[in-house]
Amino acid sequence: MRDHPADQPTVALPLAGTWPLPRTRSGRTLTTRAVLVTCAVAMVSVLVTAIVAVPLAVRGVERRDQQALAAEARVAAEALRSRLDTRRVADEQRLIRQLRAQGVEAYLIRGGVADRPGLPSGVVQRIAEGRDVSGRRPVAGRPALVEGRALPGGDGVVLARAVSRGGVWRAVVRGLWLPLLAGLAAGVAAGLLLARRLARPIRRAADAATRLRAGERAIRVPVEPPDEVADLAEALNGLAAALATSEGRQREFLLSVSHELRTPLTAIRGYAEALADGVLGPDDLTATGRTVLAEAEHLDRLVSDLLALARLEAADFPLDPAPVDLTRLVADAERTWAARCAAAGVVFRVEVPDRPVPAYTDPGRIRQVLDGLLENALRVVPSGAPVVLAARPAGPDPAAGGVIEVRDGGPGLTDDDLAVAFERGALHQRYRGVRTVGSGLGLALAAGLVRRLGGEIAAGHAPEGGAAFHVRLPPDPYRTRTSA
Q: Is 383:348 a contact under the CB 8 Å cutoff?
């Protein structure tokens, strides 16, 4: 028994990398580009973070130093409150040396006068007025953090810590470089993981496409999120299934065609061998010649149908459309088919209106379609059953085109048959050995011809009990324009 595509086992696609594929340069792969983009984003994020964080950190350091200096100024003011009055110079100098050892310059103010130069006059004046001083001021020509505390009688103490802008920044950067570097490394790692996660389903899809190209039809790609990747996987799986179905039908079609070719060839060969061996006498020659001629005509029709199907989609397929009266076309066909149906014991009936049915088509090709449909009907209709050939307008407007119908009283078609009636060899495969069948090409050829002529063809159930085929043909465009 032949394997049908639907019966073939489904093979899940292995992980990416198990099927060799030609690779381009690494700089052009999705993984490399995703990593580079992520690194660039991480670098920009780190730079933005540094631009925002470092000034904040510098201000935080300066605020902390300012607070520490304020605390030292309060302690120094309390320590010197009584000593400035008693002029205990030794204690004052010892305190100044201790503060200087901590990087703090101490200025003593007595009676509104600083003990040494360097302080701005505004700072000295504020202390002399009994007001405290806090903030950044120039001291001895250099920027410094200043904290001054006023004491009674115009006395006071001012502490100054020199500010080295570069030093603060270096200290802050030394404290931040490791976290920033860690953030950059984390961005690179995240980019690599993300790129691999995004590239894996794409690689699987590429692997599946390559294996489909190599002829494997049981390949299926796992359907995984995100939605875009799932859509790609479903599309590839659908393509694989469609290819398997199409190739299965092609195999069945070729088997059917080969069977149809072999049958007349076998008959012709048998009679030829009989003639060559002298088995047949003179009285049998006439019957033998008729049989060989009939089989040769069968072969000729089959080959002609195959050639017509092969050329049907070609741009140079010959068509000669012209205005046609379908009533006259049906009358011409009646003269041929009435005699054939009568010889087979089949009732042939024509149904046409009493006025012309204009259409625009190739009369030779439409007659070919009619002959094919009538041939199929006559093949399956039993003796005494009807075959009907009808023509009618497609609508109340004469410019709507025309319809030709071929109906019969034969065994008919099921609803499933109607869905595949115009596929090559579909009905032939179903009914071979059950009823008389042709080559399996006639309906496919008829459908292709009608569509090339701009018409429509459909199959259905006939009121006579068998199958009905409706061919709708377009109107005459010139007649439509003049009537408008």
A: no
11-12/219-220 β-pairing: parallel
**Which value, in Å, is the radius of gyration of the alpha carbons in the chain?**
50
Q: Where are the beta strands (DSSP E) in 74-112?
A: 105-110
Q: Which single residue is written with the structure tokens 């008729």?
A: 290
Dihedral angle computed from the Cα positions of residues 420, 425, 427 and 433, in that order, rounded to the nearest 10 degrees: -160
pTM strictly above 0.70: no
The set of residues, in sequence order, having a beta carbon less than 8 Å from that of 102 and lying 6+ positions away, is: 72
78 vs 94: CA distance, rounded Å:
15
Query: CA distances (Å), 98 to each of 80, 106, 158, in order?
Result: 14, 10, 14
- Coil/strand/helix, residue 154: helix
**Strands across the sheet with 155-162, in order?**
113-114, 105-110, 155-162, 142-151, 133-139
**Residue pLDDT, tens place only, 86-122:** 555 666 777 777 787 777 888 888 888 888 888 888 8
Instruction: Tell me which H or E stretch contains 150.
Output: strand 142-151
Question: For 333-351, how does the pLDDT look when each residue is reduced to its tens digit (9 = 90+)?
Answer: 898 888 889 988 999 999 9
For residue 82, which phi and psi values (nearest 5 degrees)?
Answer: -90, -25
Torsion of CA 188, 192, 195, 197, to 10 degrees: -130
